[in-house]
Specification:
399 residues; alpha/beta; Purple Acid Phosphatase, chain A, domain 2; 5-stranded mixed beta sheet; 13 strands; globular; Metallo-depent_PP-like; signal
């Protein structure tokens, strides 16, 4: 675990000093998951405001409009949020013709944010992992040409790079027009290195993950973070347990709500909220922010505001609004900025406007809990190196 902590502190791109309180166990977890601001950044007193954005799925235009309307950037697209931190919860890629654009945008904003003492960071989502594994099922027809142009601009030999891939990996992309994307997104490729990101991180009192964090994940997260970053950079093996299986941090839907319960406000069973409390207690956090599952109600929270779901389907392939979550640095108060699709301006909404009621869904307990804790699924079998058995995906939708 000590080596994993060193990797995290060396490789990760953002975050704030840890609160001094908490138990020894909490401080140990936080020290591994908190990402520090660059050493060149000046020390700043007080807590930072945090902005959280969910799945983008290639729609750079929607992301630009949202950040400008919410005041995170100015009209020219420059960082305007001072020492704030922007966290994107993963799934920048797939479903859109130019899904390189959101990564380019965030990397540009990160440079501007760091000049002002702020930070921009993103997480590993299931679609980043799928692309690095050579699973291109969610790439539209127009999603290959931008990678071809990128590779040629940097004079990277596409065919030679493709030939150098492991044959079992390369089999997923045999068509010539797919090869540039496959080489760029393969571990160690030009894009994979640029997007290398942790699976979970802590900013202040908030824990972030793409899909969720189960109680069993907590002691493994530091090692998984290090393994995910090393894998993307071509320096390590695929962390199977971290990035595969329906219970993994990039695939789970335990905290995402259920369409069956929409009429009840997308609340969660008390057993799920109780497990979330265990996760937050172990990490010394007050809330968890996740994406992965589109929320028809927009950005919303459940479990008495302890989990926020920020995937709103903002990409034009889904047709949802563009929304983000703001966590005030002084008070910890949460607010949602909602920008209607096609709208020129949005509005800030208090947390109370997007709070799901606490309730137990109206169905027998055995049926209710089977959805979350039972049913056929691969076991979370993890060895000392954090690699275990599982499947690549959590479902056929691949959100």
């Amino acid at each position: 675990m000590g080596a994993a902590i060193v990797w995290i502190l060396l490789l990760a791109v953002c975050v704030l000093p840890a609160p001094s309180g908490g138990t020894a166990a909490q401080r140990s977890v936080r020290s591994a998951l908190e990402l520090r601001l660059p050493s060149r950044a000046p020390p700043l007193a007080g807590e930072r405001t945090v902005y959280a954005v969910g799945d983008v799925h290639g729609d750079g235009r929607a992301l630009r409009r949202l950040l400008a309307a919410a005041g995170v950037t100015d009209a020219a697209g420059r960082w305007a949020a001072g020492d704030a931190v922007l966290v994107q919860t993963g799934d920048l890629f797939d479903r859109h013709a130019d899904d390189l654009e959101p990564l380019r945008l965030l990397r540009r904003l990160r440079r501007g944010a760091r000049e002002r003492g702020g930070e921009v960071c993103w997480l590993m989502g299931n679609h980043e992992a799928l692309n690095m594994l050579g699973v291109l099922d969610y790439v539209p027809d127009g999603g290959f040409a931008p990678f071809d142009r990128l590779m040629r601009r940097w004079h990277i030999a596409i065919d030679a790079g493709f030939a150098a891939l492991d044959p079992s990996d390369a089999a997923a992309a045999t068509a010539p027009h797919e090869r540039a994307r496959r080489v760029a997104m393969a571990p160690g490729g030009i894009v994979a290195r640029a997007l290398a990101a942790p699976i979970a991180l802590i900013v202040g009192e908030t824990l972030f993950a793409h899909a969720g964090v189960r109680a069993a994940h907590v002691p493994l997260l530091a090692a998984w973070n290090a393994q995910a970053v090393a894998w993307a950079r071509g320096d390590g093996a695929w962390p199977r347990a971290a990035l595969s299986g329906v219970d993994s941090p990039v695939w789970t839907r335990v905290l995402s709500g259920d369409p069956d319960y929409d009429e009840l406000g997308s609340g969660l069973p008390h057993e799920v909220c109780a497990e979330l409390d265990d996760v937050l207690r172990a990490t010394g956090c007050s809330r968890l922010v996740v994406g992965h599952t589109p929320q028809p109600r927009g950005v919303n929270c459940a479990c008495a505001n302890r989990v926020w779901r920020v995937d709103v389907g903002m990409s034009d392939v889904y047709g949802g609004p563009a929304e983000l979550l703001r966590i005030d640095g002084s008070s910890g108060a949460c607010a949602v900025f909602a920008l209607p699709r096609g709208g020129a301006c949005g509005e800030w909404l208090p947390a109370s406007a997007r709070t799901a009621p606490s309730h137990t869904p109206r169905r027998p307990a055995h049926a209710r809990l089977a959805k979350y804790f039972g049913g056929p699924k691969p076991p979370l079998s993890v060895g000392a190196d954090g690699v275990g058995a599982g499947v690549v995906g959590g479902n056929s939708a691949g959100d």
